[in-house]
Amino acid sequence: MQLYSTFENSIFLEMAIATLEKKGINKENIFAVPLDNRTEERKMFDSIHRSDGTSLVDIGMALATGFSVIGASIGFKLSWGPIYWGLISACIGFVLGFIIRLFIECVIKKRKRILKGKHSEVILIINCEENQAEFIENILWSHLALGVAKIKRT
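^ that's the sequence the OP posted. Answer follows.
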């Protein structure tokens, strides 16, 4: 049987390995694999093949609608008329909304992404007998594993 677990690179990983060795698991049956974390920045603009689910134009469209109504209303009193002023104010509203959303995604949410959550840094693979799996799993959980999976080999 094989057990897979993910850990942050911390003292708890070392303690889990030492505890497993004390409980009779040979060093040859314990395999630790460090993960390479993402080094490149996430892309801001979506492509046709990849989307992150956030839209940069939603606030821009809402402001464009509101600004165009206001611009067309005021345009009745101005020299170019309501159509031109409605289009001009719609463009201003869209650009303003796009800039607001871009600021939110680049500055505010970037800070939250950096601070948020724990990240797996090491995968620990343990080969063991089927009767040892339960207590090894308990050891891994007690040493703050981020995730544990068991695979029964045939």
